[in-house]
Design a protein that fits this description.
Two copies of one chain form a homodimer.
Chain A: H1 13-20, H2 24-32, H3 39-52, H4 58-65, E1 70-74, H5 87-100, E2 104-108, H6 118-125, E3 131-135, H7 142-149, E4 154-157, E5 169-172, H8 174-187, E6 193-197, H9 203-218, E7 227-229, H10 234-245, E8 253-256, H11 259-271, E9 281-285, H12 289-293, E10 299-302, H13 305-320, E11 329-332, E12 335-337, H14 344-350
Parallel strand pairs in A: 1-2, 1-3, 3-4, 4-5, 5-11, 6-7, 6-8, 8-9, 9-10
Antiparallel strand pairs in A: 10-12
Chain A binds a DNA duplex (30 and 30 nucleotides) through helix 2 and helix 4.
DNA sequence: AGTAGCAATTTGATCGATCAAATAGCACGC
DNA sequence: GCGTGCTATTTGATCGATCAAATTGCTACT
């Protein structure tokens, strides 16, 4: 019969104490409040701790301290027909920073949509996690209210879109992002810059649309009609982009609210024999894995997910230690990753956009 | 001052016992060994448990039972210039099945490459996790030996490529995958089917190459020279595919060992004015998010990650409860997702592949 | 009626750490 | 010489559950 697990459990604090010739509490202090020990004792104790490879038992510590050092993160099913979520990059950054702050990330997922909140409830009641990180928060998000009512600690990736919400949050400025895309396109000589965006009822979509429009106005090239809206699917984006491209005075560049939409736009271009980056410039949003690999490379707005994660963890730490941070939320600035779909030379060469002056 | 956390901690077993007029242990039994209670007592106790919303405290339970019900999963930095890892889909499936089996997934990440194993050590010593799930195991993987030596329970996503390893594993048959792609291409009329694969020293790459070659032989269309190798990057794949396409008798279809490589191939086609799916058929591997959204849609081999996750969790459960499973490992079969890059009608129409008979 | 044999339930001990309070050690001043 | 006032360290209690053993309650049999 095969032997099983469990053999790697280390020594207990009691055994270490005995080996070092001191008491339990002194071992505990050496690790948790070293300033309480005399220098020589500390050194000796830490030596023994190191020799025996002692690490305090999590369960025991958690029980006594009434904490778990775990942070719950709910993940959604990966949507097919999406350019790939931010999850990958964000998750890695979040784990890295969390571990740096002494926390670990615990994943959970709703069994079915009904018990979306049951997962929170379960983890809180069993003291399995100390706090949550929420992503994709939206107007009227039931999670925000549910957690808020119960005074459960959490930090949201997503600003509070409605009034009266006072939770800590971190978000990325979508308007600045699409603004960067427009700036870049204008610098390349584009004057007719369209938008393929999300439906009007999406706050995030409105944010990105506003950035596009404001920047166009700023550059004196605004045409509010040069836009189409659809949900975040490539097939819909193909149709939406088609409507713009087949118009009487089509855009020479299209700013998209997501990489998924941008991929649909690329499809619409291909259908019409137009070359992305050469005949029509395209920008996406999120810098998803697909953006980097699709030929000729999709220019895209990149969210600073590493900074988002860092800020979230900082806020979590403050929340759980009752510290006050100067700001409840933080709005971070994205950057633009330029690739082939806004190729400078090609676009200028093929498309004399100054012709209408 | 804002109130903080912790207010949602539920009642203790002691309080529930008092409320129900029974002892601690009876509450415990009601939840863990209901057959020990008389039917009427059970019903009454469960009623009280439900009324008070009692859930046993994790830390206390973990301490007594010497388990954590957590499974560690190490995640790697998301590689730029990759079509998007499997992580998204796999992770979700793994979490879902784990929760179904009473486990949660705990993420960790190596701070720096050196302490790749330090993370394991830490989690084991602190009794933070009961077991691990490993992904991307490879020949000579230090993790396999390290965990094996310590008799730490784990299940690998990836078969043992070297002899002498006796750990539980689940994997996907790559050879069958590329074989499916070839079958499909042959059915479309293709006779010159090339391969863009990974370097020779990759076991996974060899597996996928073997599937391509065997299928070609089976169909009597084998040309072992019709292949190129490079690492998993689009830029290298573009060059590699270029060498094949610019040859004297170029392939009409290219099977790729990954979606990343396939995206590079699409780039090479675009450079040459060739249309994917129409002039040259292309297949990828992994059915990454990018495959679904890149125009005209990348035909790709899809790994049954949901089944992989289920099998892994089943094996974890057996491992942790000392049960014996009939098989130590399981090899699952992928499927082919057909999209525009192997468009039937277009390919047949434009490319009379029978011409050389 | 008395009691053996079970079934149902309760009591005491324990998991391994930390908190709070008590004690030991030590220098210093009067 | 002896208490004062520290600092360093130890002791006792506790977190909330489960395991193991003891006890109570019942049924059935002689």
């Amino acid at each position: 019969m095969r032997q099983r697990s469990g053999e790697q459990a280390g020594p207990t604090i009691e055994q270490v104490a005995r080996a070092a010739g001191v008491s339990r509490q002194t071992i505990s202090n050496a690790l948790n409040a070293p300033e309480r020990l005399r220098a020589d004792t500390l050194q000796r104790v830490l030596g023994v701790v190191d020799d025996l490879g002692y690490r305090p038992n999590r369960a025991a510590r958690n029980l006594r301290r009434r904490e778990s050092k775990l942070v719950g993160l709910r993940i959604n099913p990966a949507d097919q027909d999406r350019a790939g979520s931010l999850l990958d990059r964000f998750l890695h950054a979040l784990v890295e920073h969390s571990v740096g702050a002494g926390y670990h990330i615990l994943l959970f997922t709703p069994r079915d949509p009904d018990d979306e909140l049951a997962g929170f409830d379960d983890l809180l009641r069993t003291t399995a996690v100390d706090a949550f990180v929420l992503t994709d928060t939206h107007r009227g998000d039931p999670r925000l209210h549910w957690l808020g009512e119960r005074n459960a600690p959490f930090v949201a990736f997503g600003r509070p879109w409605e009034d009266g919400l006072m939770h800590p949050w971190v978000d990325v400025d979508g308007a600045v992002g699409t603004g960067l895309a427009v700036d870049h396109l204008v610098a390349l000589g584009h004057r007719r810059i369209g938008l393929v965006g999300w439906p009007e009822d999406s706050d995030v979509g409105q944010d990105r649309r506003r950035g596009w429009l404001d920047a166009c106005v700023r550059h004196g090239v605004a045409d509010p009609d040069l836009r189409a809206h659809c949900t975040d699917r490539t097939d819909e984006a193909m149709l939406a982009a088609g409507r713009l491209l087949d118009g009487s005075d089509p855009p020479t560049a299209l700013v998209c609210a997501s990489d998924t939409l941008a991929m649909g736009v690329l499809g619409a271009l291909a259908e019409r024999g137009l070359r992305a980056g050469r005949d029509v410039a395209v920008t996406g949003f999120d810098d998803s894995p697909a953006a980097a690999v699709v030929p000729p490379g999709l220019t895209s707005v990149r969210q600073p997910l590493e900074d988002v994660a860092e800020s979230i963890v900082k806020r979590l730490g403050a929340l759980l230690s009752d510290e006050q941070l100067p700001e409840r939320g933080e709005l971070l600035t994205p950057t633009l990753v330029v690739r082939g779909t806004t190729d400078h030379q090609r676009t200028l060469g093929k498309h004399p956009v100054e012709e209408d002056t």
